[in-house]
Design goal:
Strand content: under 5%
Number of helices: 20
Helix content: 55-70%
Distance between the termini: 76 Å
Number of strands: 0
Order of helices and strands: HHHHHHHHHHHHHHHHHHHH
Largest sheet: none
């Protein structure tokens, strides 16, 4: 006979089992307490705060910290700060940092001060999470912490520091110290760190990492994510990296039996480089089979500023149900804006 999943506990049962002698029962009750606290049950959030301080098992205290964040218990701020400063368990401190990043108000100076200290902790997971949380709460110290993390001994922290820099310095531009550290990272041995450094530089118009971007587009480095490859393809189109054309063509048109998952991204990048075959393929897809195909072609035509696609886009705008009307409208607006800039 198949066993049935237990029914969710009501508040009374969850409060009772949260103090059970068996850890497995307490762990199960914790899930219900988080659900109940998320639904506004004050007694449930009170019990989570008690568990955060008094639960004897490190793993369950860590899960409680995460549960408080999931349940959006903002009054847990002080209790989480206490765990971060006093708990002997590195995993509990790590999840307290994560929860503070979720729950603290933007610009909370007291939380930011503690997170800055955590960003220099001896434990790499704590430094990693502190860096993310400083960025998340928009702390004034976040830019300096990100620049400092670019030379952290842990490669994953270095990698995430370059990716965070893209957002953190989006308005002000990457500081020269950040550029220098990103360029230095291009000479490193960790492929994920090199990829992140090249992508960060490219985001700010710096082609120092051109070789690394082309390697990413080719899919050669191991240990590099699909998302990094996708970002590299996009950057190649934005920066006009002509040297990437061969690799982009291979990804856009090379799949005979199995289509490359990034073929459309490569097609768009090629079109932005002025590749006639890619531009013709996008225009052709505007009248091709399938709602999704025509919609993606419309989005690509707009982003690549394919003025030769205007008649097909205008036909789609008049037709009902052949493509997403908002995507088609936006594509035409991009073409109009591009034409206006040229006249100016």
């Amino acid at each position: 006979m198949l066993g049935l999943a237990p029914l969710p506990r009501n508040l009374a049962a969850a409060l009772r089992d949260a103090r059970h002698e068996k850890p497995a029962v307490r762990a199960s009750a914790l899930t219900d307490l988080v659900r109940l606290a998320r639904n506004g049950e004050i007694e449930a959030s009170n019990e989570l705060l008690r568990l955060l301080e008094h639960e004897p098992l490190d793993d369950l205290r860590a899960r409680t910290a995460m549960g408080l964040a999931d349940a959006e218990v903002h009054r847990a701020r002080d209790a989480l700060l206490a765990r971060l400063e006093n708990d002997a368990s590195a995993s509990v401190r790590q999840f307290a940092v994560l929860a503070l990043g979720e729950l603290a108000e933007p610009g909370d100076a007291s939380v930011a001060r503690v997170l800055v200290e955590a960003a220099r902790d001896s434990e790499a997971p704590i430094r990693f999470q502190a860096l993310l949380s400083l960025h998340q709460i928009k702390a004034e110290a976040a830019p300096a912490a990100i620049l400092e993390a670019m030379t952290d001994p842990d490669p994953e922290i270095r990698r995430v520091s370059f990716r965070l820099a893209e957002a953190e310095f989006a308005d002000s531009g990457l500081p020269e110290l950040g550029r220098a550290r990103a360029r230095a990272a291009l000479n490193g041995t960790d492929p994920a760190v090199k990829a992140a450094a090249a992508l960060a530089l490219a985001q700010f118009g710096d082609t120092s990492g051109e070789g690394t971007l082309i390697e990413l587009i080719s899919g050669r480095p191991r240990g590099v994510s699909f998302e990094d490859q996708q970002a590299a393809i996009e950057r190649a189109g934005e920066l006009g990296l002509e040297k990437a054309a061969v690799s982009l063509e291979r990804r856009a048109f090379g799949g005979l039996l199995l289509r490359d998952l990034l073929a459309h991204d490569a097609l768009l990048a090629l079109a932005r480089l002025g590749n006639s075959r890619a531009r013709a393929a996008i225009v052709r897809d505007l009248s091709g089979f399938g709602f999704r195909r025509r919609t993606r072609a419309a989005e690509a035509a707009g982003r690549a500023r394919l003025h030769e696609a205007r008649p097909a886009l205008e036909a789609l705008a008049k037709a009902s149900g052949r493509a997403d009307p908002e995507v088609v409208k936006h594509a035409l607006e991009l073409l109009d804006g591009d034409a206006g800039e040229e006249r100016a």
